[in-house]
Amino acid sequence: MKSHYAQPRLGTLSNMADVSTLPDAHDGEPLTDSLPADLVADVDRIIDADTDRLVETFKDIHRNPELGFAEVRTARIIELALQNLGFDITTGIGTTGVAAIYRNGDGPVVMYRADMDALAVQEETGVEYASEKRVTREDGTEVPVAHVCGHDAHVTWMLGMAHALIELKNRWSGTLVLIGQPAEEPITGAKAMVDDGLYNFIPKPDVFIGMHTAPAPVGVVVSSPGPRLAGTDQLDILFHGVGGHGSMPQKAKDPVLMAAMAIVEFQTIVSRMIDPQQTAVLTVGAVHAGSDNNVIPTQALLKANLRWYDPAVREIMLSAVESVADGIARTYGMPEDKLPEITLKGGSSPLVNDLELSERMARTLAAVLGDQQIVTDMPRATGSEDVQLLKGPYPEMPFNYLLVGIANHETFAAAQAQGEPFPFAPHNPNYLVDLSAIPFGAKVAAYSMLGLLNRS
């Protein structure tokens, strides 16, 4: 069936980064990393014919988002789809993770990851397939859930790519290792899969890639070498106090006030303790304390996160957070055995793309999409990922992480006309993957994988 989702007009991203000049795919000798034209045409034909199914899969996952380590339904979608294609499947790795293997003769082992989890955000896109889901967390709080970071697209791209590669299995050889990863958002899922024995179920990859949505125009792909995303730590800071009546604060020790003072003073850590030329971010994302207007509670909890590239910067921030919190608690009269408790919940190292692999994949994609669609010198960002932790015991494994544009062209142009670089940011309630990005991302994934496998 011919898809009614239009092939996206390709757009540039000149305001984000200068597009490096790559060898012209159409002049002179063919690139060594180029895919044969007939193979590209076959990928396009297969994915175009599969687009309606892929879009419906995307909408289904979008309507039914699941938080980290609760991706039971999404993992089942991956399991069934890949099982039907002939993959060997292992489920339940790191709680809900999926590993799928397809052996197709001699050749490299290429691993590809798609993360599955959503966020506790109320979606505001207004699309007919928007999430209305709410869940109750372990602490009893009820939260909305939505895919506002594109993980629903990531899963769909992987399934579309897998379908195309199996249809074309006579054109390549090697081994596919596809990973459905839980809990990327709390930065704990990759480590959980490795700790749960991921490499007991899969062969050691020769090369490893991942893809993520970006609020750039559909048609743009970033393949940029070196440090790309910051390291991160997620930490809880629990202040203890002495509860009491709101009318008699002198009889209590107010943990809400301690937490409030800490939030303000934490901001001086980056501004006064870190070299201004270093990357450092400290954000308090949540405050949990009390339940009544006239009651001073016994505890106040801050949920914070750090971003860094230099491990020395990380150590300064962690040490300073503890010093600030302890100092405030002591100032308000808390004894040594009731100082704040700091819990490190999850974290990741900076994401670094392999130079040779990044350049190789950029050449492959430029030869298909056109040089001006490939950004190779994107400035590094302060967002974070844990995909690289899937390397586990093989830290030298070549790895590259692509960013794929998903924004509607008109929406993107309107944002730029208003002086905004992007129409929305990840984790924003209005984050919206244009439906034309679904087949496009699947094609990018297929081109990328075929560029790394042996081809016949």
UniProtKB/TrEMBL annotation:
Keywords from the named record: Hydrolase, Manganese, Metal-binding
The record's free-text note on cofactor binding: The Mn(2+) ion enhances activity.
Highest taxon listed in the record's lineage: Bacteria
TM regions (residue ranges): none
Gene Ontology MF annotations: hydrolase activity; metal ion binding
SUPFAM superfamilies linked to this entry: Bacterial exopeptidase dimerisation domain, Zn-dependent exopeptidases
Name of a matching Pfam family: M20_dimer
Binding site residues for Mn(2+): C149, H151, E185, H212, H427
InterPro entries: Amidohydrolase, Bact_exopeptidase_dim_dom, Peptidase_M20, Peptidase_M20_dimer
Cofactors that this protein relies on: Mn(2+)
Domain Peptidase M20 dimerisation residues, every copy: 236-326
Name of the molecule in the record: Putative amidohydrolase
